Amino acid sequence: MDGSSERAVRAFGSDRDHPERAQCRAVFAEHAGLVHGLLDGRALPDGFLGPDDRASLLRAATP
Hints:
mainly alpha
């Protein structure tokens, strides 16, 4: 979630209202190498993720 987007914060609440987001970010960071390997190596079947989602996750998982 983009915390700098006022519209998104109004719709989904701030990080302060949702402590589970910090937990999610920590788990993602801990396993980013695995996520990167799955996406970069094309281990996931075609069509599992759209190209934009794949690219976004790959960027987030790149050290």
